[in-house]
Design brief:
The chain has 27 helices and 17 strands. By secondary structure, the chain is of the alpha/beta class. The strands form three sheets. Strands 8, 9, 10, 11, 12, 13, 14 and 15 form an eight-stranded mixed sheet that branches. The termini are far apart.
Length: 678
């Protein structure tokens, strides 16, 4: 720009700040621009910066024409007004802060030389402008404060015309050495306090929000979840806190660890040059990181020396300049990408849904009735079939599918609790939205009121829990606890094996995958599935699983699969016994070496149950064990009176009987066990 133009801009800037000083600027404005209010002659730095930005926009725009500019995060509107005074015909400033919005308008009225400068209160993630409304967008110290950078950049690209330019100029360079210590101090204050009233530290806000959302979790658990979920906000904060309460850990790292838990606004987030370049590439810009240029208003000897030193380092080379300054600058030109218009399909009517709940006694301590109430409160209607007294689980599911009238089958264990009123909608909606999905499951968490041992099981044991996810995830953790499948697909693959005592859902998943479908867990859909409440219940369950595995190996070895460790994608065909024993030994050694004692105990109890089941010392349970055991006991000489004298609960712990011929072969041992049981 010509020298005369620069003199005019300098004159306009000095006169404008003099008018603001006479009009009694607010304390907040004086905090940022008090130097120029006290001495308007120093405002040459702001004028030079505005002229520099206008030149950058014109040089990088595809045709050089810059008529309409959007100032993103304009604050008090100083740079919006100065861009207008620098020859930009139309400047629109946006900022979500209501307090700054009114002052920006008032100050802009004091500078009639700026031309058409206006202000709109809006956030960067939802710009209230039509597509291709602007020739250029200035993001000066604003991208480091928006809640989500990618959506903001996508919105910026939408409102830019083809060939328009985005100029990012931010004083939060992650590589810059100056200012690093000050930023970290500010981060700690915003997170932990002390904060000036009425502000509240982010950690305290998270504790308050989580305490209100999860009142049954206890104050100690809520405080731990608030610390673990640092950096998250909104729905993601609730999801990751729920994951921590249900599984003992969070699964999604925050983009930035110091953010407002309510709005998501970042407290001086930093960007490295490669990071800002990658973000612009991902959102459809042609980016170019440029050497930063500073404009100083200091006239004292120390200030001049600092400015000259920084200028020397910048001239020494581009990499050095990125370390010598907190400023980062980048320009991105919007490419001409045509987005085809997609027609919104007509919504299809929801298919009918039947929920199948297998249960031994039909009550499960009153949980079945509570589960019925939760199903009735769901956002989509569903019929309920409770299958009482049918065992194993695969046989009960087949019976429920035979009785069901719905097009979609939802299987729930009788001890689960639904996480919210959209669980069925999440399962059914995933099947409707993704035709390639055959089975969809829900995430599994420990109940909020779980005791410490249950939380330990959920955190340390494989497949005891699965975190709430934000996207569709292919995994083998779509289990009987909560899963949905189309009725026609269930019939097509032959349902579930009716004689397997365990892992019948693994066979169903394998059959569905062989038919060409995916097995997934739905996003933001979870149930509460309680782990064992005590060491005694834990040991009993693991030994029973081991005995059942031994029985299945003897009776139907062709249907067995090895489940993946953790949340693997799919199970594999069962290998030879020697290979499986070697793998189990290696896993036991890893757990011992890592100090995971609960996993060690789990493997040992399972191995004991497997050995006991293999040699006939322990029997897995079966449908109708009581009546059939009564018949066998009478057959070996026990009278009805003596049988009734045996504690049924104690007897069930020792004789969870599956194969009655097992008793015929061991009558003598049975009599000894009964005498010990009494």
């Amino acid at each position: 720009m010509a020298e005369i133009d620069r003199r005019e801009v300098l004159k306009t800037t000095r006169a404008w700040f003099a008018r603001i000083a006479k009009a009694s600027a607010s304390d907040r404005f004086r905090l940022d621009y008090g130097l120029f209010l006290d001495d308007p002659e120093r405002s040459f730095a702001l004028a030079d910066e505005a002229l520099y930005i206008a030149d950058i926009l014109r040089q990088n725009a595809r045709d050089g024409a810059v008529r309409r500019v959007l100032d993103l995060g304009c604050g008090f509107g100083v740079h919006s007004v100065l861009l207008g005074a620098s020859g930009i015909p139309v400047v629109v400033g946006i900022d979500p802060a209501t307090s700054k919005f009114g002052e920006a308008r008032r100050y802009a009225e004091l500078c009639p030389e700026a031309g058409a400068v206006s202000f709109v209160r809006a956030g960067a993630q939802a710009l209230p402008f039509a597509p291709a409304s602007f020739d250029a967008v200035l993001a000066r110290e604003s991208l480091s404060h928006v809640p989500e950078v990618i959506p903001a950049l996508q919105e910026i690209r939408r409102v830019l015309r083809a060939g328009g330019v985005l100029h990012v100029r931010d004083y939060n360079n992650a590589w810059g050495i100056p200012g690093r210590a000050a930023r970290r101090r500010a981060w700690r204050v915003s997170e932990e306090g002390p904060a000036a009233p009425p502000a509240e530290p982010f950690a305290a806000v998270r504790r308050r929000l989580l305490g209100a959302r999860f009142p049954g979790a206890g104050s100690k658990a809520v405080a731990q979840a608030a610390r673990a979920a640092r950096g998250h906000y909104g729905d993601v904060l609730m999801r990751e806190s729920l994951n921590f309460l249900g599984t003992g850990r969070v699964y999604e790292e925050p983009e930035f660890p110091f953010r407002d838990p309510v709005s998501g606004a970042a407290e001086e987030r930093t960007f490295s040059p490669p990071q800002i370049r990658r973000l612009l590439l991902e959102t459809g810009f042609a980016p170019r990181v440029i050497p930063p240029r500073h404009f100083h208003a200091r006239t004292d000897p120390l200030g001049r020396f600092a400015a000259e030193t920084r200028a020397f380092l910048i001239q020494a080379g581009f990499p050095v300049s990125l370390l010598a300054t907190p400023l980062i600058e980048c320009v991105g030109v919007k490419g001409e990408i045509q987005n085809p218009k997609s027609k919104t399909p007509n919504p299809k009517p929801l298919p009918s849904v039947t929920v199948v709940i297998p249960s031994r006694d039909g009550t499960r301590g009153g949980n079945v009735e509570r589960l019925r109430e939760e199903i009735a409160a769901q956002t989509i209607p569903a019929d309920v079939e409770v299958i009482v007294g049918v065992f194993p689980c695969g046989r009960a599911h087949n019976e429920g599918a035979r009785r069901a009238q719905g097009e979609i089958l939802v299987f729930l264990d009788d001890d689960v609790r639904l996480g919210h009123t959209r669980v069925l909608a999440g399962l059914v909606g995933t099947l409707l939205a993704h035709p390639d999905v055959g089975i969809v499951g829900a995430s599994q968490l420990a109940p909020l009121e779980a005791n410490p041992f249950q939380r330990l099981c959920a955190r340390d044991l494989h497949r005891a829990s699965f975190p709430v996810v934000g996207v569709l995830v292919d995994t083998d953790m779509a289990t009987h606890a909560a899963m949905a499948i189309r009725r026609d697909l269930y019939d097509k693959v032959g349902g579930e094996p009716g004689d397997l005592l365990r892992a019948d859902d693994q066979v169903l998943r394998a059959r569905v995958r062989q038919a060409g479908y995916r097995v997934v867990v739905a996003p933001d859909t979870w149930v509460f599935h309680p782990p064992p409440e005590s060491w005694r219940a834990f040991a009993r369950a693991r030994m029973r699983d081991g005995a059942a595995a031994a029985y299945d190996r003897r009776t139907q070895p062709d249907l067995l699969f090895d489940a993946p460790e953790g949340a693997g994608v799919r199970a594999t065909r069962r290998r030879s016994f020697a290979l499986r024993a070697a793998r189990a030994g290696g896993a036991l050694f890893r757990d011992l070496w890592g100090g995971r004692w609960l996993r060690v105990a789990s493997r040992l109890f399972h191995a004991a149950g497997y050995v006991g089941g293999s040699f006939g010392w322990i029997c897995p349970e079966a449908q109708g064990w009581g009546e059939r055991l009564r018949e066998r006991l009478l057959a070996v000489g026990y009278t009805r009176t003596r049988f009734q004298a045996v504690d049924r609960e104690l007897l069930s712990q020792r004789f969870d009987v599956r194969a009655m011929d097992f008793l015929d072969a061991r009558r003598g041992r049975l009599r000894w066990w009964l005498r010990a049981a009494r």
